[in-house]
Amino acid sequence: MSAMDKHPLGFNAARTGLLLAALVLRFTSADAATPAELLAGYARQAAAEPSATRGEAFFQARHGREWSCSSCHGAKPVSAGKHASTGKAIEPLAPGAHAARFTDPAKVEKWFRRNCNDVAGRECTPGEKADVMAWLSTLKP
């Protein structure tokens, strides 16, 4: 071990780095098990307070592309939607109308990535995700 690998107090630099990386991952949205935890993770990543008003505006807007989020999920996504091109049924998006929504972080990221690309032509920012989730969390069937 070189002198550069040792911390002045005797900590192993590589081990300390791994521990810090694990702690950072622990407190991201990847560990979320509820919509509220996932929303909080996105808000932390964005370093901004989520806005339901901005979330609704984002959800309804076309962003220069053919579709908006509401094209498939409906203007108020508390009931089933339908994919705009395939016609495939889509379960309600609002967590208040579909208890399993926003409970699997891997699925959430997969669908945000796909749908944001379709709607905005890019990945959504953590702030945009937080805003949309904040609005969806206000909706009741």
CATH architecture of the largest domain: Orthogonal Bundle
CATH class of the largest domain: Mainly Alpha
End-to-end distance, in Å? 61 Å
The computed structural class is: mainly alpha
Strand fraction equals under 5%
**CATH topology grouping of the largest domain:** Cytochrome Bc1 Complex, Chain D, domain 2
Low-confidence stretches are: 16-29
Number of helices: 6
Overall average residue pLDDT: 84
How would you describe this structure to a colleague?
With 141 residues, this protein is mainly α. The chain has 6 helices and 2 strands, in the order ααααββαα. The protein folds into 2 domains: 1-31, no CATH class; 32-138, Cytochrome Bc1 Complex, Chain D, domain 2. It has a two-stranded antiparallel sheet. It starts with 12 loop residues before the first helix and ends with a helix.
Question: Which descriptors apply to this entry?
Answer:
141 residues, Cytochrome Bc1 Complex, Chain D, domain 2, globular, single chain, 2 strands, mainly alpha, two-stranded antiparallel ribbon, 2 domains
Sequence-ordered SSE layout with sheet pairings:
Layout: H1 13-26, H2 35-46, H3 52-60, H4 70-73, E1 81-82, E2 89-90, H5 105-120, H6 126-138
Antiparallel strand pairs: 1-2
